[in-house]
Amino acid sequence: MSPLPNLSNCKRPSRCNSVRLFLPCRKVSFVAGLVLSSPWVFYQAWLFVAAGLYPHERKYVHIYLPMSCGLFLGGAAFCFYCVFPFVLDFLLGFSDNLKLQTQIRIADWIDFAIMLPVMFGISFQLPLVMLFLERISIFEVKDFQEKRRIAIFVITVVSMILTPAEPYSMLMMMLPMIVLYEFGILFCRWFPKPKPFDDEEDEKKTAVATT
Question: Do 109 and 1 contact (CB within 8 A), yes or no?
């Protein structure tokens, strides 16, 4: 069950009964199937959606979709290889300090190992969310800069909600999100909003091509 830390005082993961063992196995199978089939599913979804998009909208999808996938996978990998060892060392060490025997149940461990990387992957979408809000004119770049303190407070609250009730995972989600917030400001500068006449030209070209 990598990446479990040094569990010299723990036994192997246990289960309460034979029936409940099938549920975590189904969860693992579902997640594995979803991950393995996701390229084909996204490709088919793209073929369906692309037929109704203008050329400039397709350009945005070509840019943002790979970035979104990369950020999600980066967040999940960061959680699995960097966050898990610290969090588990803290939780197991806390039990040792209380002189309690740690018993890891397979169902609880699988839920923890699936949900926390997903939460990190979702939280790492912050730069694209900021870029989207700037694109639809809800916020401007100067708004992100001026409201940085409020954003840090919101990031702290979100990190508390998405992570277990211990400090390490919260801090290790909050700090990267603060860095990603700054990257989001840079993204809004690097990818400025298209001018209205550019969109009109693309729409005219599409209309001419379809007639």
Answer: yes
Phi, psi values for residue 170, rounded to 5°:
-65, -45
CB of 14 closer than 8 Å to CB of 103: yes
Angle at 152 between CA 150 and CA 156, to 5 degrees: 115
**DSSP strands (E only) in 127-167:** none
* Nearest CA-CA partner of 172 in 75, 71, 73, 72: 75
- Alpha carbons 117 and 20: distance in angstroms, whole number: 23
CA distance 75 to 187: 18
Query: Which pLDDT score is estimated for 18?
Result: 61
Domain spans, the chain = 21-52, 54-204
**How far, in Å, CA of 86 to CA of 101, rounded?**
19
Q: Model pTM?
A: 0.74
Residues 22-36 have pLDDT tens digits of 777 788 788 778 777
